[in-house]
Amino acid sequence: MACYEYERAVREGYLVDYDAVTIKSDVRLKGIFLSEGEQVRLVDTDTGAQQLDLLEDERQFDTADIEQKITAPDSNRKMLSNDFFSAVALDAFRSGNPTVDDSIGR
């Protein structure tokens, strides 16, 4: 069985080396708590149809539920903001490695 190693693929130009970027996020560290009466948007993952609804009771989503059962669009927007990526790019430049990985998860 042949083995083609990651380092070799980078060296030969088939892959680009990267540094993982991590972010501290209360949502991803503590989960999400929604209060009774809070307005939420429900999305049918099969059709994409959206519907606004009011919660009838409290709901707690732990960190394992984030992006599986619930998403926090404002948190996602903040992580993908230009300020964040500008800071990451500057840090990568200063460290001598100008590549930036957009996978997020601190």
Question: Your description of this structure?
Answer:
The structure is a single chain. The chain has 106 residues and is an alpha+beta fold. It has one domain (19-95). The chain has four helices and four strands. The strands form two sheets. A two-stranded antiparallel sheet has the order 1-4. A two-stranded antiparallel sheet has the order 2-3. The longest helix is centred in the C-terminal third of the chain and has 14 residues, at 82-95.
Q: What is the helix/strand order?
A: HHEEEEHH
Structural class: alpha+beta
Low-confidence parts: 98-106
Radius of gyration: 19 Å
| Strand proportion | 15-25%
Strand order, largest beta sheet: 1-4
First-to-last CA distance? 36 Å
Domain count: the total is: 1
Number of strands: 4
Mean pLDDT: 77
How many separate helices? 4
Share of helix, binned = 25-40%
Overall, the morphology is elongated
Biggest pleated sheet: 2 strands, antiparallel
Structure characteristics:
single chain; 106 residues; alpha+beta; two-stranded antiparallel ribbon; two-stranded antiparallel sheet; 30% helix; disordered C terminus
Present the secondary structure layout.
Layout: H1 6-11, H2 26-30, E1 32-34, E2 39-43, E3 50-54, E4 59-61, H3 73-79, H4 82-95
Antiparallel strand pairs: 1-4, 2-3
What's this entry about, in short?
The strands form 2 sheets. Strands 1-4 form a two-stranded antiparallel sheet. Helices cover 30% and strands 15% of the residues. It contains 4 helices and 4 strands; from the N terminus they run H-H-E-E-E-E-H-H.
